[in-house]
Amino acid sequence: MLIPTIVMGALALALLCVGYFRGQGEHVAGAKTGLQLTAQVLPLLLFAFLAAGLVQTLLPKELISTWIGPGSGLRGILLGTAAGVFTPGGPFVSMPIAAGLLRTGAGVGTIVAFLTAWSLWAVARLPLELGILGWKFAAIRLACTLFFPPIAGLLATAVFGRVDLR
């Protein structure tokens, strides 16, 4: 986490300097917008990280191992896929949950299927897609991506199933 933090800090500082040297007060407006976004997203982040921590401590490792662990096979991948489909929110929600499950003993295939399903099939985004792009396009997109999350999970298990990511 140190390297991404340093990179983002350097990027923010560079952009702040660009805004300052333009001399039109853009750095102040940008900083205000960034702080407003922080105020909006921070509660979601806090709850997502709280949920991820609670998943790690409250769910018995034996239960995780049986249902979604490395040895759970297709059942774990399908459960990860289903969980990804119904996980609301953006990466601020799904990434901490995925990290918590991974640290608790979930299989790499399950987590790959979870994140792939979350990014391709998210039910929470479906009403917006239907409203903007129409039901025909949404149906075509969903039909074309139907098998990707389980296939990605199976592929991850086959290629990286023995890698310990904890």
Question: How would you portray this structure in words?
Answer:
The protein contains nine helices and no strands. The protein folds into two domains: 1-42; 59-160, no CATH class. Helix content is 81%, strand content 0%. Helix 6 (108-121) runs antiparallel to helix 9 (148-160). It has helices at 2-22, 26-58, 61-68, 73-86, 91-104, 108-121, 126-133, 135-144, 148-160. With 166 residues, the protein is mostly helical.
Topology, please?
Blueprint: H1 2-22, H2 26-58, H3 61-68, H4 73-86, H5 91-104, H6 108-121, H7 126-133, H8 135-144, H9 148-160
Helix pairs in contact: 1-2, 2-5, 4-6, 4-9, 5-6, 6-9, 7-8
Mean pLDDT: 90
Task: Using the alpha-carbon principal axes, give the shape.
Answer: globular
Assign the structural class, choosing from mainly alpha, mainly beta, alpha/beta, alpha+beta, or little secondary structure: mainly alpha
- Share in helix: over 70%
Number of helices: 9
**H/E topology pattern:** HHHHHHHHH
The description of the largest β-sheet is: none
Measured by DSSP, the beta-strand proportion falls in under 5%
First CA to last CA: what distance?
A: 15 Å
Radius of gyration: 20 Å
- What is the number of E strands? 0
Q: What number of structural domains do the residues give?
A: 2
Unreliable spans: none
Question: Can you describe this structure in just a few lines?
Answer:
With 166 residues, the protein is mainly α.
